[in-house]
Amino acid sequence: MQNSAESKHEFRVGQRVHTHGDSHRTGTVRYVGPVEGYSGTWVGVDWDNGEGKHNGSINGVRYFQAKSERSGSFVRAQNLSQGISLLEALEKRYRSDSTKDEEDEMYVLSTSNKRVSIQLLGKDKIHDMLSRLEELTSASLSCLGVSSPGIPCHINTRVPNIKELDLTWNLLSEWKDIVTICEQLPNLGTLNLTSNLMSPCKSELPLLKSICVLVLNNSSVDWEQVELLKQSITAIEELHLMGNSISRILPMSSSMVLGFDSLRLLNLEDNCIAEWDEIVKLSQLRCLEQLYLNKNSLNSLFYPDKSSQYEPEVACYKPFQNLSCLLLGDNNFGDLVSVDSLNFFPKLVACTNENKETVADTQLIAALYIREQYVRLVISRLHTNPEEVKQHPRFSELKKIHGIEDERPSVGPAGPRTTGSGFLSITLECVGASMGFSIAITAFDNDMSSLMDLGIGNGSTILVDEES
């Protein structure tokens, strides 16, 4: 009876699985076979969350190498699930009644992979609408154990109008399966594969001409894989690569990253990049407008000029010629030379750093040397510390360019008045990968003082991620 039961559960090394009944606990099969001292066949699993019992060895016998000392365990086949198809997941999510626990689990992911809870209003009406699969334009199948496309020709028949597909935290690992899904969904523009551990693709993939936004956070994708993908995602506008332990940018055929002719946003947050030279390799992406580098290990930066070691045949454009937004939070910057270098980026208008501990980091918060609010910030500090100007070598020049005179707080009928008193118009813009909004706010009088201290002036845009 035991052998008969086990024959129904055939697993292979490298396969992605989850615990039976718990699609949140995912792992990779690293061994299938006998274990000395125990009867029957066992499946050795290396768990994504690191919560196992050992490192792949028992009683001194090594069966597989887990990624950490306690991320591996041996499991009976009947206690593991090989997952379900994309079509089965669609039926489960949109054709069946949701439980209270499932509704409590509803969320969207911010760009930092944090869950932002959502609440459904008019649930019955929404459920009725979503149950008509052929009318769906956006589908979220996160944490459902999707491991395969299913019967390819059925996908386009059942959900022909899908434009956005969230496959976060499933069991997909083969690029051929992703290609099948994309080919069957010709309108698919946004694809989220966060926390699917993708196996390396061995060669270039077929053209995925409709994909404009691709999210590969925490998917074990390195830059060599990105270079292979580049030939397929020719229309890509947003590429998110957070949490992939990327330390080097490795162009395929030159010293600079080329191609990506439509790429506007590149998210490399929460990686291991330590040298700015690696970032310089991205400087010839002529459409790049937003570059997210929060949570890396950078300690300095510079603007690549003529003295940089370019290959003449690839240095066709002014470096970072359209970069307008640079996120540098939670790095190791500490020198004013790096801060001053920001002035040379031709179109940079927004630069943030979440770490406010040092003088240099505080200046990064000040939105840029080239902005008017930076000049006003320095002026406000000169009133209490005249030596402050020595830390800002281009202050006098920028003050003249913007036509800003020294302004001191004055006292009016309503009490102290701050620089430019009246009101400030500020826009808050969400930068989450799977959510978006924009809202304008107005600040008056004394509220403006603290905003100006941060270098925020009239017309500023503040980029917002999830609630911390």
TrEMBL record:
Record field: compositional bias (Basic and acidic residues): 1-25
A GO CC term assigned to this protein in UniProt: cytoplasm
UniProt superkingdom: Eukaryota
Ranges for domain CAP-Gly: 33-76
Keywords associated with the record: Chaperone, Cytoplasm, Leucine-rich repeat, Repeat
Subcellular location: Cytoplasm
Region (Disordered): 1-28
InterPro entries cross-referenced by the UniProt entry: CAP-Gly_dom_sf, CAP-Gly_domain, Leu-rich_rpt, LRR_dom_sf
Subunit: Supercomplex made of cofactors A to E. Cofactors A and D function by capturing and stabilizing tubulin in a quasi-native conformation. Cofactor E binds to the cofactor D-tubulin complex; interaction with cofactor C then causes the release of tubulin polypeptides that are committed to the native state.
Homology family: Belongs to the TBCE family.
Identification of the protein by name: CAP-Gly domain-containing protein
UniProt organism field: Lupinus angustifolius
